[in-house]
Amino acid sequence: MVQELAAVQIVLSTAVGSGESAAMKEAIDQARGLIANQITSLRHLIVEMRPFGLAPALETLCRRTGETFGLETELHIGAEWSRLGDELSPEAQAHIYRIVQEAVNNAVEHAQASPP
From the Swiss-Prot or TrEMBL record, what is one GO molecular function term (predicted)? Predict the structure, then answer.
């Protein structure tokens, strides 16, 4: 999420620096697309995490990824997970979710998986 927002900033800064209206229009269109992707990602994250919490959200992420790419997925969470999940701030839980999401996406990419 932060990476795409940083990309928006770079795209817009570069376009403004060029001073060309065509480059600025293209940059604005590209930035709008990146922002739309982030809004969609945030909505999915909010739906998945509330009101169930981080563990069910991660289970849903793994299950959906497995279903989408025809992969067998398995999530292992430590025995103290329920206690730890309750002690984490919502922001920390969101960060953990995004880290696991990135790891799952990398695993799918490196496995060269594609939807059936």
Answer: kinase activity
Q: Is the pTM of this model over 0.90?
A: no
Range of the domain at 3: 1-49
Residues 72 and 60 in one domain: yes
**How many CB atoms sit inside 10 A of residue 93's CB?**
20
Residue 14 makes CB contacts below 8 A (sequence gap 6+) with 23, 27
pLDDT digits (tens, 9 = 90+) for 68-112: 888 888 888 776 766 666 677 777 888 888 898 899 988 888 887
